Amino acid sequence: QVQLVESGGGLVQAGGSLRLSCAASGRTFSRYRMGWFRQAPGKEREFVAGIEWNGDRSSYADSVKGRFTISSDNAKNTVYLQMNSLKPEDTALYYCAARRGGLPWDYWGQGTQVTVSS
What we know:
The protein is mostly beta strands. The protein has no helices and 11 strands. The radius of gyration is 13 Å and the shape is globular.
C-alpha cells in the first residue's frame, strides 16, 4: 500500500524559506514521477513541481520557477520541495503525489499547510 507523508509546513514571513518533505513507502518508486501540488482556499488544486524518482526531468509551474526546487533522495525514499523567497500568494495546503509513467496522479498524501504572512 502506497503511503505518502508530507511534513515541513508552517508559518513564515514573506521572503522566508521552508523545506517540505514527502516520505514515500509501500512499493518501489523507481518508475514513478513525483509531484508537489497546492490548493489555496476557494481555488483549484494546482501543479507546483514534478520530478522523476531518479532525479531527472524536473518541472515547475511558472509561478514558482526560480524560487522553488524539487529534489529526491532515493536512499531515504523522500522527495523535497525547497521553497525560497516565499510570498503570501504561496499560502496553501501542499500535497505530495505520485504517478507511474503517463498515468494519472494516483497517490496522494494528506497535505501540509504553508502560510506566508505579509
